[in-house]
């Protein structure tokens, strides 16, 4: 097995052994969707949502939660802790470059986000017959760009935060903002129009996910914003990241 493969295996075990990461990162979004679906009135069509059920309308917002929990809270805190504890510094004296550890972390956390999103989609479909994304290619593009932009921001937090506590503080502010604009705290149809429009461009771009989910091709500009965010934040994080 290659050194990267071994690191991915180790980081996966550490992720699964952490009750908070496993429970909140993997299971919470699906649990929220199932909990809301257990309320009968939320399974009835509503004129406020164009005849959709609330449970169908809210499903993309749980995907925002699935990506945000892992990309904006778990990833930055772990990387900042590794640097604070000297793990990355010590790895520089070994044949395995610490950049491989960062890559392994990205692989594990992105995989966890994908698993959490898949769990949301499958659970919603099996339990409450929530429709699958009706524009699969548009949904795939929107999700990939959205998750890339969120994880790039998470890496940027890990790059600038001197300690794990600082990373957690920055991540909390960003996470709450993403959840607000993503319609997790309040459904987007209840938000002021200006706030909802801002949410179209805040990673991971919930409106693009919602459009693709309901069968409409996502608008181009929000996707471009997601791509630019991923490239810009990722480039800055790579440039300023400190190993110690």
TrEMBL record:
Residues 7-193 form the ABC-2 type transporter transmembrane domain. Its main location: membrane. Keywords: Membrane, Transmembrane, Transmembrane helix. GO terms for molecular function: ABC-type transporter activity. The chain crosses the membrane at residues 21-42, 62-82, 102-124, 136-160, 167-186, 219-241. GO terms for cellular component: membrane. It comes from the Bacteria. The keyword Transmembrane helix applies. It is found in: Membrane. This is ABC transporter permease. It comes from Glycomyces luteolus.
């Amino acid at each position: 097995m290659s050194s990267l493969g071994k690191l991915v295996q180790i980081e996966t075990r550490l992720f699964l052994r952490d009750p908070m990461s496993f429970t909140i990162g993997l299971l919470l979004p699906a649990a929220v969707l199932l909990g809301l679906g257990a309320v009968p009135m939320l399974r009835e069509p509503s004129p406020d949502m164009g005849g959709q059920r609330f449970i169908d309308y809210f499903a993309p917002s749980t995907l925002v939660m699935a990506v945000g929990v892992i990309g904006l809270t778990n990833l930055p805190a772990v990387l900042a802790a590794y640097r604070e504890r000297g793990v990355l510094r010590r790895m520089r004296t070994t044949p395995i470059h610490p950049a491989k550890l960062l890559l392994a972390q990205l692989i594990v956390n992105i995989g966890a986000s994908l698993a959490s999103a898949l769990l949301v989609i499958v659970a919603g479909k099996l339990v409450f017959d929530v429709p699958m994304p009706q524009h699969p290619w548009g949904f795939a593009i929107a999700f990939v760009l959205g998750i890339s932009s969120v994880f790039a921001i998470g890496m940027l937090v890990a790059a600038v935060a001197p300690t794990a506590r600082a990373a957690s503080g920055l991540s909390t502010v960003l996470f709450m903002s993403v959840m607000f604009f993503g319609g997790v705290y309040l459904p987007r149809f209840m938000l002021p129009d200006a706030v909802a429009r801002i949410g179209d461009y805040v990673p991971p771009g919930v409106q693009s996910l919602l459009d693709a989910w309901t069968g409409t091709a996502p608008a181009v500009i929000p996707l471009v914003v997601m791509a630019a965010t991923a490239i810009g934040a990722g480039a800055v994080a790579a440039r300023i990241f400190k190993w110690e």
